[in-house]
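User: Please predict the structure of the protein below. I'd like the answer in structure-token form so I can feed it into my own downstream comparison script.

Assistant: Understood. Taking the following sequence of 441 residues as input:
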Amino acid sequence: MSRFKFHALSLGVMSASLSFSAQAATEVTWWHAMGGQLGEILEGMTEEFNASQDDYRVVPSYRGNYTETMTGAIAAFRAGEQPHILQVFEVGTGTMMNADGAIYPTYQLMEDHGRGFDQSAFLPAVVGYYTDTDGNMLSFPFNSSTPIMYYNKDMFEAAGLDPEQPPTTWQEMEDASLQLMESGAASCGFTTSWPSWVMLENFSAWHDLPLGTQENGFGGIDTEFVFDNEHVARHWDNLKTWQDAGAFQWGGPGSGPDSEPMFYSEDCAIFFGSSASRADVAANAEFDVGFGMQPYYDDIEGAPQNSIIGGATLWTLQGHTDEEYAGVAAFFDYLSQPEVQAEWHQQTGYLPITQAAWDLSEEQGYYAENPGADISLKQMTLNAPTENAKGLRFGNFVQIRDIISEEMEAVMSGDKTGQEAATEAVERGNDLLRDFEAANQ
């Protein structure tokens, strides 16, 4: 049994022994959005830190999903009741960065409290997403993921495909999907969760295409979307064509709620989802699962480049004492340790945020024992991130993602072409960017 799970299951036994030190310890509150098994692992990780020293006690508190957690924290900040640490999903980065006077940048926090904090130890694709234009880390990377391909090896074999060789290009994806259907091995070739994240945001990064101006928003809030290009339009049209042929199945907007069930029920042979879904896939798939990178169009120069991350980071909020912030810095220092990061990565499927944690996992034989577990890492580190592939930083992007999903769904229903939908998504999205810019002048 792992360290984290042991502590998560042993809180009652530990509570008596910790009660005395807890009374004397400086308390640090942490609002997070992880329920279920992930929440248990998080609780155990926190108790491990609390048991390792007597000066500080981190108290995690589940506050609902990412949107609910962020909304609740904004209300709490206005009331002067904000937590010390707040978990915010990646699309909230632009909003957090521009919350004037609300955040205590991580690099400054660690420096102010004498904690050695070497940003070069973190994976470049992770660091790039959460740094300012001067390269300073603003929030602490915690649970980072990227979309990968999951596929049914049994179906591949039944269709006469090599179960050890997943498609690498979109042409190969089309060919494999049609062969899976025509052979009777599957009723659907592939499906996807989070269509905006997978089929636009990561699609663009993977092909080194810009989503917006100003380095995808990194250079300023006066950014504009520019993803209404021929490549995105072609891809969305192709998804519609493949859907009409039965090779692709739309899993729904937003999180794509129908996509994973279609994979588990063996209707669709291939599923695009978060690398952090690995544990769920292993628990629910009653077949041999393979793992692959996202496909690319081989006629687009620069592809494949690298994928970008999802997940969340930990933001430190203003309004607390120096002693309490020293506790936050100590906790972040603990979370940076290779052993802690490797444990988190191996249990959850999230990326290790440091090179040392990746190396340690390899030394421990984790990747050898779990083939495909390093696909996400290889995909994200395939090349050094470019301006188009280090992430995105747009205000109001939570709402803008909904717009993108709506426009993609209009293509799938036959109401719009890929170009019409991309153009409309850009126009509607730019309206919200201007609203954000006006509110943060």
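That's the full token string. Residues 313 and 418 are 33 Å apart (CA to CA).
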